[in-house]
Fold this protein.
Amino acid sequence: MILFLVAILILLAFLGAPLFSVILAAAITGFYLSDIHLSVIAIELFRIADTPILLALPLFTFAGYILGESNTSGRLVRLTQALFGWMPGGLAIVAFIVCALFTAFTGASGVTIVAMGALLYPALKQAGYKDAFSLGLVTTSGSLGLLLPPSLPLILYGVIAQQMNAGDQVSIEKLFIAGILPAILMIILLSLYSIWANRKEPVPLTAFSYKKARKAIREAIWEIPLPIFVFTGIYSGFFAVSEAAAVTAMYVLIVEVFIYKEIKLSQLAAIIKESMVMVGGILLILGVSLAFTNYLIDAEAPMKLFAICQRFITSKLVFLILLNIFLLILGAILDIFSAIVIMVPLMLPVAISYGVDPVHLGIIFLANMQIGYFTPPVGMNLFIAGYRFNKPILEIYKATIPFMLVLLIAVLIITYWPWLSLVFIS
Amino acid sequence: MTHKKNNRGFDIIRILEKVEDGLLVSLLLMMIFMAVLQIVLRNLFDSGILWADPLIRILVLWIGLIGAMIASRNNHHISIDVISRYLPKQAKKVSTLILSIFTATICGTMAYYSLVFVQMEQQDGQIAFGVIPAWVCESIIPIAFAIISLRYIILSYTCAKNIFTRTNQ
């Protein structure tokens, strides 16, 4: 009977039912069968208002949407190109850095491909990079930066881990620190690949020009402080994450609307609506999952899952290998927020039992998800890129696969070398 | 006669949408303002508004749920679209119909039970912050699920009509 219901719910989910309704249905069924009054779900949902850190979610999302709608992308590209364009591998490396920063602030919702890709793709081709290479680079970079602050998925992972009582060792600040080296590793490997891939027809370098650099700096003078005070504010502990989010939202609002005047007040309402619809979707899934998770813990599901796992998986190494495979598939079919909210409560206790550090698990989780964004055949960014650059999807697949392999190597290093994530915390 | 009635129905929907939009925008701006004000007060004047923090946290819930209400206007919720992308047209219509009936039912159930929860809280008479009782803050939960349910009922109706008229032709 229960198995039958589970099968139906999974079928509905795959047919495209709103995920929140599937989780809600599961929670309702679970509580109903264990004779618990269903109003408990509303109590669990209200816990959203009991979690101060969640404030960061709407605020950073809003700031990200504002940045995505204004011409920040153009200024950021010109600035980075003026500063780093003279290095070997110049523009390609610039593209990785710029996309990583932009994605960290805007969330990997496809905005990076739409806003940054529109600038970088023609620029790369003009600089002499091959079409397929440029296309693959831009598609891949759309989710680069998920591990850098103030990335929303990282915050969401921290929220869930704290709800799971995995101890306060999983603070958002620690996750932000843990993500830095893995993110840098990804950028370095991708940059090395870019240099290697273009070794036969090297792209001519542009000389460093003080004039251009000065102009680009002056142009972006109001936006340069943004990552600086977010990073230093959070890392020094001067700001709590939600405070940094509030300051960022206010700052971005003032700068883009009143100083650069690139967003009209009349547009503001539409941007707020669009961004908060996304936040609403995430929070609703989070809320009903809190209820469902509570049911699962009541039913001792994670412990049972661990018992089953232990019968087949005896070592931490095998567990990590299977985890990688599972997460890669998951990342391709499920969006990152739902994946975190649904899977982390089940996975975290099991992973801890195998001796995986919960902070490290978060980094592994997101690094895998990041690849899922452009894993054929259904990775979301593949479709966004195909649509944005008007290319057949098969061409996007082909162009992206080499980059995907490079990032797979990065993910393996991140997974099997915990030091990289954990060196600065403890 | 029916035409007029329909128009009035649309008017109500349009008014509801205006209210949602207006609330969402003003609540978010208020949240940003309050959060920054708290930081300024705390760091520069070593003080703060006592009820600001609980208010901000409740605003997160309200903004989230209103956002979710707006998302259901055109079935814009997060979902897996692995299969639906490849379904033939007619099958897709049928599956949309089934899924919207399912969602409407689930949300309706949730609306009812969260209403029960809010009523219990009302009898409890707890205060959330300032003079605002907790049940007022929680009332958005049944409202949101009722409206989401309503939107999916409307969606199922249009779907059913669509399928029916197609097979008639």
Summary: Chain A is about 75% helix and 0% strand. Chain A touches chain B through 61 residues (CB under 8 Å).
